[in-house]
Structure formats: C-alpha cells, structure tokens
C-alpha cells in the first residue's frame, strides 16, 4: 500500500503547455505557505491531502497503472543485466547469441505478417524468449568450462603425472618421499579425470545449443506456413544437464536473479 501512497503523492499529470507537473507537491507547498499567514490553511491542507491520497491510492485503475510502470522498470533492469551477461561472452559467442535472437524475432514478425492472433504471437514470443535464455545459460557454462580448461593444461598434467609415477617406483627414494609423491599423483589423476569429463560436457553443451537452434528454426518455418498456427514449446530435454549454479562462475548470482524474470529454470525438463 505504501508504494501506491508514494505514487499518489508524487503524481505528475500532463498539463497542456507545461508538461508533467508534480501538482500535488505544488499544492502542499502552497498550503504550507498560506498556513504561515493563517494556521487554518494547514488544517485545510491536511484534510484535503488526506482525502486526495486516500482516494487516489485506493483507486483500482491507478493501482494498475502503478503496477504496470513498476513491472516495466523491473523488466528494463533485468534486460540490462541480461545484456551485460551477453557482453561477457567472447565475440564469436556474442554473434551466435545475436543470430539466435534474430531468428526468434523473425518468427514473431513472420507470424504477425501471416495475420496470426496477438495472443498466440505473445505466447510463442514468451516460449522463444525462454529458449534464448536457456541458450545464453549454456553459453555461459561453456565459457566457464573453457576458462577452467585453459588454467589446467592436460598435456602438462599428464607429464607431471607420468614423472610422479616413475618417481614413486624409484627404489632409491625413501618411504616418506615415495608416499608424498604417490599422494600427489592421485591428486593429478583426479584432475585429469575432471578434464576428461569437461571435454565430454563441452560436447554435450554443443549438442544442446544445436538442438535449441533447430527448435527456433522450426518455429520460424511454422510461422511462415499458412493455416492453423502452431504453438512454440520452450520445454526441451538437455543432454548435458549442466546448469547447476556453481557452473556459472562469477555470473552465478546474476543468472539466479534473472531466472526469476526470464523463466530459464522452467525451460528445462528431464527426458
């Protein structure tokens, strides 16, 4: 309720020739000045202001306007954050993301040109936006996996592992040193396994990206066909299953926040 009272107090209606003016604030200021000459104006001002705020803030139409403005502002902020995530990607991935978004827009534009009803266009646009958000999340995970792979070169790890294996089998070194080298080799073995899994994960992510692209292309083709319009589904079963929060790296918090807006979590289903 407070946000409606605040909006009512700060209301700025359009005045012909003057633009948007904070008329309520101006009237409150005028009553305050008049009250300096006679306190009765203060009582009158308090009564009028109370009636004005109570009437406007509880008006259902005014509340809908306030809600719509706040929703629009929130969506604009979310879109800015989403664009910031896109700009974190390498240039080639940004172009790939832009290409997918262009195809999503083409599907909506084609459907509109075919005379498809607005509610169907909006429903399909929402589904395509969810697919585009899922696509971006996959690109972010892949970027993070590539960064981890760069930090841990597999060839170097293999050389270190092989050397430790040889050292551990050398009869000339003492038991304590042999035990230390054996423990280190076990750690390197686990890191090599992580790299092998990462390579598999990257292949799965590429498969999922291609699948989303195919889904969007199908939506574009269906939009151009005359006859009964077909609904676009945002539900897609991922091969990679790699959208756990910690895989987004430094983008983890931003992705979690934007999932609330773009519905990325709802776009994922198990087979």
Notes on the protein architecture:
By secondary structure, this protein is mainly α. It is built from 9 helices and 4 strands, in the order αββαααααααβαβ. A hairpin with a 3-residue loop joins strand 1 and strand 2. Helix 1 crosses helix 3, helix 2 runs antiparallel to helix 3 and helix 4 packs across helix 9.
Chain-wise SSE layout:
Layout: H1 2-9, E1 14-15, E2 19-20, H2 23-37, H3 40-57, H4 60-87, H5 91-113, H6 118-151, H7 154-168, H8 175-223, E3 236-237, H9 252-262, E4 268-269
Provide the structure class: mainly alpha
> What is the percentage of strand-forming residues?
under 5%
Tally of DSSP β-strands: 4
Instruction: Please count the helical segments.
Output: 9
Poorly predicted residue ranges: 264-271
Q: Span from first to last CA? A: 44 Å
What's the multimeric state?
Answer: single chain
The helicity comes to over 70%
Strand order of the largest sheet: 1-2
Q: Which terms summarize this structure?
A:
single chain; two-stranded antiparallel ribbon; two-stranded parallel ribbon; 9 helices; 4 strands
In short:
The protein has helices spanning 2-9, 23-37, 40-57, 60-87, 91-113, 118-151, 154-168, 175-223, 252-262; strands at 14-15, 19-20, 236-237, 268-269.
